[in-house]
Amino acid sequence: MKAVLCEAFGPAESLCLADLPEPTPGPGEVLVDVKAVGLNFFDTLIIRDRYQIKPPFPFSPGAEFSGQVAAIGPAVENIREGDRVCGYVTYGAAREKLVVKAECLAPIPDGLDFVKAAGLLVTYGTALYALRERGELKPGESLAVLGASGGVGLATVELGKIMGARVIACASSDEKVAFAVRHGADAGLNYSTQNLKPALKAFAGENGLDVVFDPVGGDYSEPALRALGWYGRLLVVGFAAGDIPRMPLNLLLLKNCDARGVDFGGQSRKNPLWLRDAGALLMGYAQEGRISAHVDRTFPLEDCATAIGEIAGRRVKGKVVLTV
Question: What is the mean pLDDT of each run of 10 residues along the chain (324 residues)?
Fold first, then answer.
């Protein structure tokens, strides 16, 4: 089988395409014929040794996938050969065949194609975990989404609206802001040309923001935190800007507000049943058209390096997916 491999840390151009033996499922596992692989910003980091997970060499990038069950190992129930499934594996999905634990798989409903299904779990799963479990978002609350045109930002805009929030989409260009507004945001803010703190306060009103979803970090986190109101929640998702911010903790004290970490990967690994149920919910939303599962571009498996380069260059709105 063909697999994209990272054999040493480096840029996307150092990835190679190799032939590997076909794997065999063990107890509680299934073999999946991979049809599509969702790529994410952390794929640009993990291949350069800039991510908290350090896989042993050689490894494949790609944390989420969709495909059909090709073989079933012992002690697997409720899954049959030929079933259409999707799943999350942290890394290792960019290959033609993949062995995974059966409990980590979610069924793909009829009418939802493999490409959209492959790009759902990480972005919408992160947004769901952030807003529902960590952010405790309530109907009528105000939500600011930084990096709102990226995969996880766009997912948060859409799920925020489903959960009844007033959403302001914040991004680095007018084009990206307009894109997020077309996907449901109530307002938009270009933080390359506008001062973030007063603009967010103007949107939220005198009581301040209830929730900030922050996958960007860098210079944007502190002004967003300063725009929070009483009992506000800053959701720390990632640092796409490259720098981990150092913020004065007295801001949390003065507003009785919180900074809450959001680790979707850790939650999924510790609680695979949560991931399965979240996947089923999100697949249902996609089938019903309640979320767009927007895919910006697809690339064949052998062009994985180019696809990751597009994400690293921030030239993507929504998701990038490899087709196998």
Answer: 97 96 96 97 94 94 97 94 95 97 90 94 96 98 96 96 98 95 96 94 94 95 96 95 89 94 94 90 93 94 96 88 97
- The domain defined by 123-264 folds into Rossmann fold (3.40.50)
CB burial of 170-179 (b: ≥16 within 10 Å; e: otherwise) equals bbbeeebbbb
DSSP annotation of 257: -
Distances (CA, A) of 185 to 85, 106, 119, 265, 323: 31, 29, 21, 26, 30
| Dist. CA 134–CA 17, nearest whole Å | 39
- Which residues are within 8 A (CB) of 224 and not within 5 positions of it... i.e. 6 or more apart? 144, 146, 196, 197, 200, 209, 212, 214, 234
Closest CA to 66 of 103, 94, 42, 44: 94
Topology, domain 2-119+293-323: Quinone Oxidoreductase; Chain A, domain 1 (3.90.180)
Q: Residue 271 — left, alpha, or beta (φ > 0 → left; ψ -120 to 50 → alpha)?
A: beta
